[in-house]
Amino acid sequence: MAEHLITDLAALEALFGQVAPQSIAKETDRLHPAYTRWIENARFALLATSGPQGVDVSPRGDAGPLVRIVDEHTLLLPERRGNNRIDSLRNLIADPRIGLIFLIPGVGETLRIRGRAQIDVDPALLASFAVAGKQPHCVLRIAVDTVFFQCARSILRSRLWHPGEHDTTGVPSPGTILAALTQDGFDGDAYDGALPQRQRDTLY
After folding, report:
1. Are residues 120 and 44 in the same domain?
2. What pLDDT does 186 receive?
3. Which domain holds residue 199?
4. For 27-49, how does the pLDDT look when each residue is reduced to its tens digit (9 = 90+)?
5. Residue 9: inside a domain, yes or no?
6. In the predicted model, what is the mean pLDDT of the chain?
7. Does residue 85 sit in the same domain as residue 182?
8. Would you say residue 137 lies in a domain?
9. Domain total for the chain?
10. Which of 48, 72, 81, 103 has the greatest number of beta carbons closer than 10 A?
11. pTM score > 0.85 for this model?
């Protein structure tokens, strides 16, 4: 098996060939107005971080827009209420580098950003992000290093924006998963029954 593993950059680049000119041209080190318009329409993103416990990717979503654009080099991302694991934030304490992938339902392309984040708890800043009187715990102040759009092939292959084609009957519920992992230490049915209302009541 080892003889079939690629372990050096030259072999990897030879496997894929040259980068298309447009794939290079689409990358910028700032938020070009075209990318700004894209981000202003995004309500959901995946946030990637890395730290002592390893790499983490977690979702971020809001009523829109998800982030606030300060200038062509700076984004603000509020940390809304969640499960308090704070895996991403723990990582950022150790390593400020982040990656973001923004998705817009119905749009095949995604937008990728690489940068560095600081955890900001300025009271005035938190208040400016309040929803229904509830402030985020903190705000990620993101310095943008690289921005580019990703082609639509993965979205097209997965048919992601065609929900009618996805059979979810075999997907276990959160309660089912908790019950299985704890040898029925959790009442899965009760958890699932209460979850929708709990999520609505604690959205922000």
Report:
1. yes
2. 87
3. 167-204
4. 999 999 999 999 999 999 999 99
5. no
6. 95
7. no
8. yes
9. 2
10. 103
11. yes
Q: What is the pLDDT of residues 168-191, one digit of tens each?
A: 999 999 999 999 999 989 899 999
Where do we find the tokens 């202003």? 40
Residues 112-143 as b/e (b if ≥16 CB within 10 A, e otherwise) read: bbbbebebeeeeebbeebeeeeebbebbbbbe
Does 42 share its domain with 103?
A: yes
Residue at 51 is within a domain: yes
pLDDT tens digits, 144-157: 999 999 999 999 99
Tell me: do 73 and 153 sit in the same domain: yes
Give yes or no for residue 165 having a pLDDT over 80.
yes
Position 15 in a domain: no
